[in-house]
Amino acid sequence: MERLESMRAEAGRNDTPRAGSGRSDMPRRDAGRNAVPRAGAERVGPPAVAFHHATKRFKSSIAVNDVSVAVEEGSFVTVIGSSGCGKTTLLKMVNALVMPDEGSVFVQGRATSELDPVELRRSVGYAIQGSVLFPHLTVEQNIAYVPSLLNKHDRRRTDAAVKKWMDLVDLPSTMRARYPAELSGGQAQRVGIARALAASPDILLMDEPFSAVDAITRSSLQDELKRIHERTGITVLFVTHDIDEAFYLGDRVLVMEAGRAVQYASPHDILSAPAVPFVDKLVAKRRAAYLS
């Protein structure tokens, strides 16, 4: 499958919103889990994902309300807010599982309304809560599912992709023949991440991927994901209810309230200069720990 590189050349044909400020530096691995990334230099180039006055209604309620946000290439953006504030709906707009009623969503410079949804979804990895693996397929077959569609006449490329991503998410080769029912929660989640990455997408969407595992496993998975992002440079949008997780993983954090994007900034800026009372209340108990 041709990925979305060819679409980038046509990015100028759309009025795509650009990022207002650059991604912040990632915290050093030895800086501790309370380290907060600080603002860094501005990046040049079109955003990987951009929401332009995006609005989505479900019956009488507004799930996403006039959101305009640009996600820079290679950034790790965490999305946080109360239940029902529109986080998941916003995420699903990126791979066209949900289409906006008003406004537009752009992926690498092209409106999702102009793209073939099947091709788009093959170029955007998607990992959700509980991993949702195919129960009748082995670990190897789950990870190979999309690569085998793309490399129908080249089994070696598929095998190489499976090995690469199993290694990167720290899954031993002895697990290749296991079925999902034989895996622990953490192992299943690692398989889900490997499957989402196996087609080498430019963008990875993650919706509460670690919420179903215990605290120790969750911490380990966070570190693994951070390492994968640092090694691959993939653009990540990560929905979470956990503010500590949002600050640890994200170089930028999008805070949503009642369908609106109320602040989009580095963790440090959100902690030191909350834009609205909702954000101030959200971070108040953690401000001293993170900024000390």
Automatic annotation (TrEMBL):
Pfam families from the UniProt entry: ABC_tran
Species this chain originates from: Rubneribacter badeniensis
Biased amino acid composition, Basic and acidic residues: 1-16
EC number(s) per entry: 7.6.2.9
Region annotated Disordered, chain positions: 1-45
Lineage of the organism: Bacteria, Bacillati, Actinomycetota, Coriobacteriia, Eggerthellales
Keywords of this entry: ATP-binding, Nucleotide-binding, Transport
Keyword tRNA-binding: no
Protein's name in the database: ABC-type quaternary amine transporter
One Gene Ontology MF term: ATP binding
PANTHER family, per database record: BICARBONATE TRANSPORT ATP-BINDING PROTEIN CMPC, SPERMIDINE/PUTRESCINE IMPORT ATP-BINDING PROTEIN POTA
SUPFAM superfamilies (alphabetical): P-loop containing nucleoside triphosphate hydrolases (SSF52540)
Domain ABC transporter: 49-283
InterPro entries listed in its UniProt record: AAA+_ATPase (IPR003593), ABC_SmlMolc_Importer (IPR050093), ABC_transporter-like_ATP-bd (IPR003439), ABC_transporter-like_CS (IPR017871), P-loop_NTPase (IPR027417)
